[in-house]
Specification:
It is a single chain. The chain is α/β, with parallel strands linked by helices. The chain is about 35% helix and about 25% strand. Strands 6-9-10-3-11-12 form a 6-stranded mixed β-sheet, sandwiched between helices. The longest helix has 16 residues, at about 180-195.
Length: about 500
């Protein structure tokens, strides 16, 4: 927590306003940040968080408003202006060049040179010093593509330190980290605090907010809802302020009688990644699958969906052995996959949201080789209403939607396909608590229709709150099954995950 002696104003943003065609993203927004403080920035998807940090980082020009840093008004018209002002933004998608070394990424554009030659030895020494300061030993000469996500994040933070950043913005920094890596990230953040650096921390994981933040600012529909000391708020108050309504429970209640086995997997194997995995999912059941990052969960889902080729194993649906060679075979058989990474694997971001919805359903919307656009539009309109997709028009490119609305478009295309087996891989990653609840309701509705649901998740409260049974993976194998979920604990799951 911040020291009261360090509680001096570092950043002041006043009256920030920003509009895009059809969207008023920020509405006369005010925000303050103090030296040595971690300010959590919260809100539902589409609340304006990303737009605000892009204004601060120079990626967007505000239509109105002022930015003051340590008493001086600054004009931030580009990322270079933000950098000169001492602002570093670490986005979810890192701004690193994968084929360059960690050292080269830190000094990119600021290389130490003599007679046009880069002083690599000096840069290497300074990079090592930065990594030592952060307490994470990284070889400065290793390529960034060979680093883990957590290590790439440290490279981004090291770059911020090298640029002498006074303000560091972290956008969903823990989304793909293991619990141990998250603990290390928090240690690094506390070291930044001790150095007087202000941190703006964006996350949908409320446990993290109560762990690391000093204050919280909540946005809704582009406007300021509240700012409060985190110690003065209860979890329920935080959720209610974010979604604008009271949620009695974070997880949707369900009482569905489970039937016969629908999806059966026997001996599924691929190299050393997935090793002799067998399980079954029943009619009306939500089977939770969890484990640490790298346990083989996503890889197993890709094998079932035909995105990767298996070395051995059988897949059955309703007693019928399936021959799945590719995703098309899986879709035809009635299996769909909501991928872990919706942006690179679940959507074509430059295409319209309507076209993304229609791609796996072209057979329903075409005749004699011609697309029936009116039918496609009408069907998509039904799902926009049903799923409450916030979108100005159907032709809006999918890449311009918020994370939660992107996920809803992915879900809509599979619901229209009426698949019998639905695999959710990290279904609520990067989406807010209100939209999470909507997803939980939808998952329960699918189960009540007799679908077989496989839910892969790293969020243990989600696994415990939504699953009828839980499987735990470690190093490509199933290491445990929990059938009495109502009596299970996160500690029990973690013991199985590290065997």
């Amino acid at each position: 927590m911040i020291d009261s002696t360090a509680n001096t104003q570092l950043l002041s943003m006043r009256g920030i306003d920003k509009s895009f065609p059809g969207v008023h993203a920020l509405r006369q927004l005010d925000i303050d940040l103090h030296r040595g403080e971690v300010l959590a920035l919260l809100g539902e998807n589409g609340a304006g968080k990303s737009t605000l940090i892009k204004v601060l980082g120079g990626a967007h020009l505000p239509d109105a408003g002022s930015i003051v840093i340590e008493g001086d008004r600054v004009n931030i018209a580009s990322p270079a202006d933000a950098q000169r002002a001492g602002i570093a933004v670490i986005y979810q998608e890192f701004n690193l060049v994968p084929t360059l070394s960690a050292r080269a990424n830190i000094f990119l554009g600021q290389e130490r040179t003599t007679a046009s030659f880069v002083r690599r030895r000096e840069e290497r020494r300074e990079a090592r010093a930065l990594f030592e300061r952060l307490g994470v030993p990284i070889d400065p000469d290793v390529l960034c593509c060979d680093l883990t996500v957590a290590q790439q994040q440290i490279v981004e933070i090291a770059k911020a330190l090298w640029l002498d950043a006074r303000i560091v913005v972290m956008d969903e920094p823990s989304a793909t980290l293991t619990p141990r890596e998250i603990d290390r990230l928090f240690d690094v953040i506390r070291e930044l605090q001790a150095a007087g650096i202000g941190v703006i921390y964006i996350s949908h994981r409320l446990d993290e907010i109560f762990n690391i933040a000093d204050r919280v600012t909540i946005l809704r529909d582009g406007g300021h809802v509240m700012t409060s000391n985190i110690r003065e708020l209860a979890r329920d108050q935080l959720i209610e302020a974010m979604v604008g309504r009271k949620l009695e429970n974070e997880f949707s209640a369900r009482d569905v009688e489970r039937g016969d086995q629908r999806l059966v997997v026997r001996g599924l194997t691929r190299a050393r990644i997935v090793c002799d995995v067998s399980f079954a999912v029943r009619r009306g059941e939500i089977l939770g699958l969890t484990g640490l990052v790298g346990a083989g969960r996503t890889e197993m889902a890709r094998l079932i969906f035909g995105a990767d080729q298996r070395d051995a194993g059988m897949i059955e649906l309703d007693g019928r052995t399936l021959r799945i060679r590719n995703p098309r075979d899986a879709i035809r058989a009635g299996i769909c996959l909501l991928t872990e990474d919706r942006k690179s694997q679940g959507l074509l971001l430059r295409l319209s949201s309507r076209h993304n919805f229609g791609l796996p359903n072209l057979g329903s919307f075409s005749s004699a080789g011609f697309l029936k656009q009116a039918a496609e539009r009408a069907k998509f309109a039904d799902y926009i209403d049903r799923l409450d997709i916030k979108i100005p028009h159907q032709d809006q490119p999918a890449g311009l939607l918020s994370g939660g609305n992107q996920q809803k478009v992915v879900l809509a295309k599979w619901l229209a396909r009426n698949c019998e087996v639905v695999i959710f891989d990290e279904p609520t990653r990067g989406i807010d608590v209100g939209v999470k609840y909507e997803f939980y309701v939808l998952m329960n509705e699918l189960a009540s229709q007799g679908k077989a649901i496989l839910m892969i998740s790293s969020e243990l409260p989600e696994v415990l709150g939504m699953s009828d049974r839980i499987l735990v993976m470690h190093e490509g194998r199933i290491t445990g099954e929990i059938t009495e979920v109502q009596h299970a604990t996160q500690e029990q799951i973690m013991r199985l995950a590290v065997q």
